[in-house]
Structure formats: structure tokens, C-alpha cells
Amino acid sequence: MITTSNDARIYRGSVLKKPLRKAVLPVAGLGTRFLPATKAMPKEMLPVVDRPLVQYAIDEAREAGIDQFCLITGRGKDSLIDYFDVAFELETTLRERNKLALLETLEPSSIEAGSLAAVRQQEPLGLGHAIWCARSFIGDDPFAILLPDDIIKGGRGCLSQLVDVYNETGGNVVAVTEVPRDYTNRYGILDVGQDDGRTVEVKGLVEKPDPSVAPSNLSIIGRYILRPEIMTHLSKLERGAGGEVQLTDAMAKLIGDMPFHGLRYEGTRYDCGDKAGFLEAQIAFAIDRPDLGPAVKAFLRKYI
Ligand code: G1P
């Protein structure tokens, strides 16, 4: 296990080990990379096989023990809230027609009354600003962030793996992966302290550095567990890379005050914010499905 600083140990002795029950899902983005498909529907409602992107994030959060959710939405994104509501007519019709298997497919999209909050990010000022919009929902609790663009396929869910580390170390934990050096300007990049090959101590963080100055090629992907103290830094609404309020900059300010670790998670990440990544996710998930796999493998051979 990685040791932490004295400050961090004092911190560990005090407020630590509040269980993680809350998750924030930023879904306010305009989805410009998928226009025109996203002109009139949220990007997060695009399906991978037959489930919308946002459903994958909710499933992963639930597996990790989360039972309170907050969507950070924007104008034109209300269908995301409808998706998690009761679909009274549809459900009644399916029940009357005895289509019980179809009815069952709706179950993951139901969230208990009072367990889903939605906040509007009124202006697109960056990921840090989006998270700050959830401050009333977060209060004094630790929370997870899941960016629905990233889908991680594998055995144990990525967020569950982060929870394991959080339960050991407390503080902040982010999912990390090595990216090609040329890509550092697309991600939050770690300055790495102690590293046991799986868990790394975070010494510094930089948002989208040029490859020539990037402190490593270890990047943050869209899964975080953060302490509520992040809101103090976010509330300053300081602009960073790209003129946006960056979550990474606020996280960097927590380093030294409390433990901060990155986890090289197990699983394959698909960047569904990118067209090629989105298509690859379709294939990867479809091939694994008993009802679709054989047909998909057969037709793929025709194209290769
Ligand atoms: C955001 C974060 C970045 C992180 C990335 C993961 O960037 O700002 O630090 O590495 O998500 O997908 P975005 O993809 O919104 O530009």
C-alpha cells in the first residue's frame, strides 16, 4: 500500500470513511461531435446496442453501492429525466399484453422516487462548473463522478474498483490509464509519486498539457471519487485550459491536504464521445451478447 503524507494521516484519523452513496453525472454537453444525430436528442441517450450511454453509467454506479444520483443537465436534455421516470402508458400496455420479458428490460431505467436529482448547468463553462452546480446535492458527503461518454467493459465495474481503493486510503481516487504521449493534450494528466504498478500517488495534475511539457502519459478517465472539499476550490470559478472552469485544476489544489490516488483499473475503456470509439463499443458489446454475437461475427467477416 502506498503511504501518504503526515497531513493526510491526520486527515485519515478524522473525517474519513463516510460511505460513498452519491454520484454526479454531467450530461449538459452539446454533443457536437455527433451532429446532426444530437440536434434534437441528448448524446447520452445514444444507444450502445440497445441501452443508452447514461444507463451504463447508472448500472456501474449502482454496482458500486451508489443509491443517490444527480444529473447535471442543460436545455434540451429533459428526455434524460423522462428516461428514468415511470413510463406509465408503456408499462401498462406491456403488462396488459403479458409482454413480461419486455417489461423487465425497463427495470434498470427506474430510479426510486426521490433518489434522482437534476440540476441545470445554465451556461457551458466547463466540467468544473458542472460539478459545482451539484454542490447542494453533495453537501458534506464524498461523491462519485461518472462521465457517461466513457464506458468501461470488464468484470468488476471500474467504480467498484475505485471504491476498494477509497475504502483503504480515503481522500480522492481517480481512474487512470496510460495514453500515447501525443494524446496528453486531450486529458487530465498525472504527476506521479509512489507507484506500485496498480495504485499511484498523485503528486500533481495538469489539464490537457502539451506532450512536450506533460509530467507523464498517465491520464484521468471519466471516473472519480472526490471529497466535498473540492467545492471550496470550484466555487472560485477560476478559468483554466480552454478558458473553462476545470475540475482538474480544483482537484490539484486538494493534493497535500488529503490522500490522492490514481488507480490503473482493470477493464477496457471505450471513448463513446468519439465516433470510432462509439462504433467499437457497439461491436464489443454486441459480440458478447448471446442473442446477437453469432450474427454480428458472421456479418463482420464480410467487411474485413
Ligand atoms: C474531461 C476532463 C479530463 C479527463 C477527461 C476524461 O475532459 O477534463 O481531465 O481526462 O474528461 O474523459 P473532456 O473529455 O471533457 O475534454
UniProtKB/TrEMBL annotation:
EC number assigned by the record: 2.7.7.9
Residue stretches spanning the membrane: none
Catalytic activity as recorded in UniProt: alpha-D-glucose 1-phosphate + UTP + H(+) = UDP-alpha-D-glucose + diphosphate
Entry-linked NCBIfam families: galU
Species for this entry: Candidatus Kirkpatrickella diaphorinae
Keyword rRNA processing: no
Enzyme class (EC, first level): transferase
Family statement drawn from the similarity comment of this UniProt entry: Belongs to the UDPGP type 2 family.
SUPFAM superfamilies membership: Nucleotide-diphospho-sugar transferases
Protein name: UTP--glucose-1-phosphate uridylyltransferase
GO molecular function, one term: UTP:glucose-1-phosphate uridylyltransferase activity
Keywords: Nucleotidyltransferase, Transferase
Nucleotidyl transferase domain residues: 23-282
